[in-house]
Amino acid sequence: MQTTIKSPVTFTGTGLHSGLRARMTINPASAEYGIWFRRTDVIGKDPLVPARWDAVPNARLCTVIENAAGVQVSTIEHVMAALAGCGIHNALIEIDGPEVPILDGSAAPFAAGIMARGIRVFDAPLRCYEVLKPVEVREGEAFARLEPAETLEIDFAIDFTDAAIGHQRKHLVMANGTFLRELSDSRTFCRQADVDFMRDNGLALGGSYDNAVVVDGDRVLSPGGFRHRDEPVRHKMLDALGDLALAGAPLLGRYTGNRAGHAMTNKLLRAFFAMPGAYRLVECDAARRRLLPGSSISKADVPAVA
């Protein structure tokens, strides 16, 4: 069965990279609508932008989507992860600026808002992409791969020279609220040297210790430290879920990422949909639906930080 949110929920805050303040509302939408963004501040151009893998022109520091008129929305990965993790298949997201508010740097506030409003179920079939054979993209030591699995799994590894992060690896089956409990509250992280470089180049203008975990060598500079010992790799998994949600339907397969980022995950989706025989679109029966990220969830699954 397809779903949407029962009533609108609004978030207000600054964008991580632009530093611009925006008001964003997740609205209910009908079955078969999918996920769309609408720029309410745009006049004279098509304001609707599809949340889809083939609408991504740039995913270097964050995931950006763009329509044929050149209208963009950036840093969509956290709200997309929250929608996927809450099992929302249809929504119209209205925003009065170019970048989604970063809030606390995680997906937990978005997930909490969605769960507070409730989820409406449609009597309409839910279709999923079943991964039939492995697809992989590589850049040096970094790679991202999709391969067959019963439901969505994410396996991620990162390596940083900063001792506060170092090597981290985590594997999770994303069924039955795993995203909400294990990943949703994990925040964006970065190195102090990267923050300095980005700000010198007009980026990360909205970044602060309140919406990102900043490390410098073996020190965590953000007050309170990590929410989880392995919060960085958990956040990379959160990002991956949000980027994979741009497939347009839930994925039944195992995603493996090693030093992968937004651009590589988008490159993987492009390779996946271009490869003959890599997938098939199947109707999810009750047994399959029970294995999806948004199945059997409740408000209690949302972390207290939200």
Explain how this protein is built.
- The chain has helices spanning 77-85, 108-117, 178-183, 192-200, 231-244, 262-274, 286-289; strands at residues 3-5, 9-14, 21-27, 35-39, 48-50, 64-66, 72-74, 91-95, 119-121, 127-131, 135-139, 142-147, 153-159, 167-173, 189-191, 213-216, 219-220, 251-252, 254-258, 279-283.
- It folds into 2 domains: 3-121, lpxc deacetylase, domain 1 (Ribosomal Protein S5, domain 2), CATH 3.30.230.20; 128-301, lpxc deacetylase, domain 1 (2-Layer Sandwich).
- The longest helix has 14 residues, at 231-244.
- The chain is of the alpha+beta class and 306 residues long.
- It has a 5-stranded mixed beta sheet, with helices on one face.
- Helix 1 crosses helix 2 and helix 5 packs parallel to helix 6 (262-274).
- The mean pLDDT is 93.
- The relative contact order is 0.21.
- Helices cover 21% and strands 29% of the residues.
- The two termini are 27 Å apart.
Describe the protein's topology.
Blueprint lengths: L2 E3 L3 E6 L6 E7 L7 E5 L8 E3 L13 E3 L5 E3 L2 H9 L5 E5 L12 H10 L1 E3 L5 E5 L3 E5 L2 E6 L5 E7 L7 E7 L4 H6 L5 E3 H9 L12 E4 L2 E2 L10 H14 L6 E2 L1 E5 L3 H13 L4 E5 L2 H4 L17
Parallel strand pairs: 4-8, 10-18, 13-19, 15-16
Antiparallel strand pairs: 1-9, 2-3, 3-8, 4-5, 6-7, 10-20, 11-12, 12-19, 13-14, 16-17
Helix pairs in contact: 1-2, 1-5, 5-6
